[in-house]
Amino acid sequence: MKFLIVSTSPIIHLDNEYSAYSPYVREMVIWEKYVDEVGFCCPIRTNKTNLLRTKIPFSVHSFFTTKEANLKSVSSTLIALLYSFYNVVVIFKGMYWADHIHLRCPGNIGLLGSIIQLFFPFKPKTAKYAGNWDPNSKQPWSYRLQKWIISNPILTRNMQVLVYGEWKNSSANIKPFFTATYFESDKKEVIKPDFSSGIQFIYVGTLTTGKNALYAIQLMEELKRLGKNVSLKIYGEGPEKERLADYIVRQNVSDFVFLLGNQDVETVKQAYCDSHFVILPSKSEGWPKVVAEGMFWKCVPIASKVSCIPSMLDHGKRGVVVTMTIDNDVRQISALLENPEQYAKMGEESMLWSRKYTLDYFESQIKQLLQR
Q: Positive or negative CA dihedral for 205, 166, 26, 300?
């Protein structure tokens, strides 16, 4: 089987080596096990990046290289339009080559791919929609268009669409799905430190305005003002890092808020084990892997009400669903800090829920998709 991955996510080509965003590579390793040849239809970059990346450990048979462009000016918009025509031809060639088409949405290439796949109704296809599938959420028109095309069984044939969460009135080709980080063999007992030694919060993720790490810091400030012995470790890189660093210095919170950058998997895993809470006050998510990772290590999640997060947290029974109103959210967290028994119960339920979604289970589901 010739398996084509159509994605906006770039491949990095440096030092005669191909790499990509680390979680993306870990997932593709599993898909690759059950196909004969892999092709990528995506942009290829040759410059260094702060992206947390991993070498692609399998052979790639074919690259169908698309072009990237931005929409920051009139001239760049015109260039992007020209590139779109070029990308249509490239994507069509890739899909013609493939025996199985795998779309990664949303994104610019995902949008073009969702349209071009209509010309291949008899080829088996899968689409992974990594964004928020909630039909009531505010999203760019291009995202809504992609969702409409791939979920429309009259237009799109022979495709299974993997989405995060379960949504009412979904079409027959929609399959609730998930993402995993750990194996069954990773499961081990976790004993959290007592609150008396300090209450540790952890944030892991890209430092962008959408991920809202600043709000996590502001929550710590308010909890500290109330006399709570809290601290926050922030792992990740991104365009907001400098602004966050300036805020930490300006607000004089560097003794309990720490910017630690990107770290290896084992370091982050140990940080989860040492932390009481994982926090993600994000404005938009698909499947918030960081929340599921923290829950796997018995961290109580504190997360915003987007995508499938309310369901993951059982609507507040195994975590705190923040309202993004500082007074109300501090009140919710403080109440939990003052009730260690409730905290322990939430942590246990979080861990039991998350540990159902292992890479072993993920692989079994991928195998079924490709064998249909």
A: positive
Q: Show the tokens assigned to 155.
A: 């237009």
Residue 361 has a pLDDT of: 96
75: confidence class by pLDDT, cuts 50, 70, 90: low
Whether residue 106 is preceded by a cis peptide bond, meaning omega within 30 degrees of 0, is yes
Q: List C-alpha distances in Å: 52 to 24, 95, 109.
A: 10, 29, 21
How many CA atoms lie less than 13 Å away from 177 in the CB half-sphere?
Answer: 26
pLDDT over 80 at 72, yes or no? no
Non-local CB neighbours of 193 within 8 Å, separated by 6+ positions: 200, 274, 276
Element (H, E) at 306: none
Residue 53 corresponds to which tokens in the numbers above? Answer: 């990346």
Instruction: Tell me the sheet residues that pair with 21.
Output: 53
Q: Which residues pair with 159 in a beta bridge?
A: 125
Residues with Cβ within 8 Å of residue 166, at least 6 apart in sequence: 176, 308, 311
What is this structure's pTM? 0.87
| Kind of pairing between the strands at 230-235 and 125-129 | unpaired
Q: How far is Cα 1 from Cα 37, in angstroms, rounded to an integer?
A: 6
